């Protein structure tokens, strides 16, 4: 687990009721789940990486699913909403002079966020694809402020004839579709999230959405 990912669990108070040994277990689980996937990971492997007896996992987390739940829950209900709030305040309250400026700011911000928190995001995405309940819960964490500000930005760009005159949801679906390929390639196929790939994603989005 990276320092930024460790910090996100601290900020979500996920460690408040855990001993140092239990924190080591959760950190090891993040590393192993992200590397091998939940289904291909055993509690024995996690215990070995954490340097503890396997029974310590069961004492706190009951089983492997309980350990996954201990990772996913604070990410969904604390870290994810907080990161969205920061994104809104730092990127969605600005006035952008062009479509390219708007797209560049959003893509660079989100890709940087992805690189800092790639392990927990990979675990969350994998669980979201597998579990309908997780998908439904994650959807509810998109705050009203986020939707208000992103819609305001798109409406402004449309009013200036800087972006295609589509419905906002269709614009967002196009943005998610183009950036999604880059994100999945980075998370699951060891494709680098480089300056070049970031530039290509920005160029593709601008071409697709230009008025």
UniProtKB/TrEMBL annotation:
What residue ranges does this record give for the DNA-binding region? 42-61
| Entry keyword set | DNA-binding
Q: Which domain of life is it from?
A: Bacteria
Q: Name one GO biological process term.
A: regulation of DNA-templated transcription
- Molecular function (GO) terms listed? DNA binding
Q: Does the keyword DNA-binding apply?
A: yes
For this entry, the protein name equals Transcriptional regulator, TetR family
Q: What is the lineage of its organism?
A: Bacteria, Bacillati, Bacillota, Bacilli, Lactobacillales
């Amino acid at each position: 687990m990276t320092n930024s990912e460790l910090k996100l669990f601290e900020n979500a108070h996920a460690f408040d009721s855990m001993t140092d040994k239990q924190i080591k277990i959760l950190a090891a689980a993040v590393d192993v789940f992200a590397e091998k996937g939940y289904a291909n990971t055993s509690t024995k492997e996690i215990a070995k990486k954490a340097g503890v007896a396997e029974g310590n996992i069961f004492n706190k987390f009951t089983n492997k699913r309980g350990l996954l739940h201990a990772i996913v829950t604070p990410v969904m209900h604390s870290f994810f909403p907080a990161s969205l709030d920061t994104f809104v305040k730092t990127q969605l309250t600005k006035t952008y002079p062009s479509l390219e400026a708007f797209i560049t700011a959003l893509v660079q911000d989100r890709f940087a966020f992805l690189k800092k928190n790639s392990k927990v995001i990979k675990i969350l995405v994998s669980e979201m694809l597998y579990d309908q309940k997780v998908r439904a819960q994650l959807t509810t964490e998109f705050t009203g402020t986020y939707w208000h500000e992103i819609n305001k930005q798109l409406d402004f760009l449309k009013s200036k004839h800087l972006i295609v005159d589509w419905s906002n949801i269709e614009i967002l679906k196009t943005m998610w579709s183009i950036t999604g390929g880059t994100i999945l390639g980075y998370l699951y196929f060891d494709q680098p999230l480089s300056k070049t790939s970031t530039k290509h994603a920005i160029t593709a989005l601008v071409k697709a959405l230009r008025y």
